[in-house]
Amino acid sequence: MTNARFAVTAASADQPPLVVVSGDIDLANVDEFQAVMTRAGDGASALTVDLTGVDYCDSAAVRALFTLAAGTELTMVVRPSGHMATLLGISGLDRVVTVVTRG
Amino acid sequence: MANEALGSEPDLPSHTSVGAAVAPYGFSVRYSPADLAGQWHDVVSLDDGRVGVVVGCCADADAAWGMRAAARSALLETADPVQSLRGVRGTAVSALCAVIDGETIGYSGHGDANTALAAPDTPGPALKPADTSLVVASLAPGATVLLCTGPIGPPAAAALDGCDSVHPDQVADQVITGLAGSDVAAVLYRHPPKTLAVTLAAHPSSLAVSRGRLRRWLASAGVDSEASADVLLAVGEATANATEHAVVGATRDVEITVTADITGTRLRLTVTDTGVWKPPPASSGHRGHGIHLINALVDSAELTTTPEGTTVAMVKDLRP
Questions:
Q1: Is residue A71 less than 8 Å (CB to CB) from chain B?
Q2: Contact yes or no for B207 and A59 at CB 8 A
Q3: Higher model confidence: residue B249 or residue A65?
């Protein structure tokens, strides 16, 4: 079974809500991924998703992120290289969200 | 096909080991930290997909460059381990030359140079003393070969025992740790493992299982982390696509089979489903990402559909 862990930090005065994701995301748990992000961003105009701890994710996750980016100002934190960076570039997701690299 | 040397020539390094800057696919190269003057290695592509390897030890770095050149030129000319070392036998303290093809390794050496061979499902590495005459051994799928300019003691041999599921770079690190204190150059070679074939129900819960099996197989095949990540994603996309779409409208239980195998430097992957393939809608929107991704991640991808199901066949070239 595909396992991912989510840590959600509520918005503060100067920071949007933050979701830190680790593990794998694919078709099996992408609905959970999307639900967690939607709940975390509910009522906020911006959301930050930290994906530096994600070992595997595919275009199902990219679709979820595109959907989310359509309704909120999305910032993604990713590692500078590796398959997440590849995925962002090929899908064009890096053109509709703010990408911060770290790690 | 023209013979060519693999890897690029580095500038003469400040330390004194001599060899290719980048080891070709399947080979891991290490020098011991003790590293006195004059250890060298070479890995050379020969005709018919054969690869020649030389490790040697001599007086100093200048001599090592000269002997490496002499052994290489003889190897390219004769593809014969015994003849390749003829010119260096008198001057090199120790040297070992091997020629590896799809099924066997033939080698010859002198001095303390030695080799060890570990095969999957076989207890302990076989230590076959190198000799000035030719020794030929068969290579089982997934076998690991160590070529070393010095004796291979018990700690280094232990690193080879049951190592077939461990990435060869990691095995090479453990071997050189086991050889600590001796002054050696070592080349480790991993023969391509048996073809991987995983068949599972076309269900999202199968994705993590087939991904885990493929990830372990890629490590055992010595595929580097960057190429592995590309392949895992390309196969993952093809598998997820089949899981989502092949099941729709199928009147039978749909299964998905993932295969992987390596010939030379070509990594071939297939994802086959037993479902009913539907052409994608004219405007696939974000759903089209899967196909774009696969094309960007591998060197070629081909889709074949029959009444029995659909196969996505992909090739990734593993040249560095």
A1: no
A2: no
A3: A65
Instruction: Give the CATH number of domain B4-190; options: 3.40.50.300, 3.60.40.10, 3.30.70.1150, 3.30.450.90.
Output: 3.60.40.10
CA neighbor of B64 nearest in space, from B24, B19, B118:
B19
Strand partners, A32: none
Mean local confidence (pLDDT), B183-188: 91
Please compute, for residue B73, the number of CA atoms within 13 A of its CA located in the half-sphere on the CB side: 7
Q: Is the pLDDT confidence value at B3 over 70?
A: no
Domain B196-317 superfamily per CATH: Histidine kinase-like ATPase, C-terminal domain (3.30.565.10)
The length of chain B in residues reads 320
pTM passes above 0.90: no
- The answer to whether A98 contacts chain B (CB < 8 Å) is no
Nearest-CA distance from B283 to chain A in Å? 15
Q: What angle do CA B169, B174, B179 make, to 5 degrees?
A: 120
Summarised one tens digit per residue, pLDDT across range B10-56 is 433 333 456 655 667 889 988 876 656 788 999 998 988 899 999 99
Strand duo A46-57 + A18-25: pairing = parallel
Cross-strand bridge partners of residue A22: A5, A53
CATH of residue A91: 3.30.750.24
Residues 6+ apart with CB under 8 A from B258: B196, B197, B198, B210, B213, B214, B235, B239, B269, B270, B271
Return the residue in A26, A30, A93 with the most chain B beta carbons within 10 A, the one to mutate for interface testing.
Answer: A26
Nearest to B208 among A1, A63, A91 (CB): A1
Its sign, for the CA torsion B244, B246, B250, B256, is: negative
Instruction: Please measure the distance between the N-terminal and C-terminal CA atoms of chain A and give it in whole angstroms.
Output: 27
Tell me which residue in B207, B230, B232 faces A2 most closely, judged by beta carbons.
Answer: B207
**Residues composing chain A:** 103
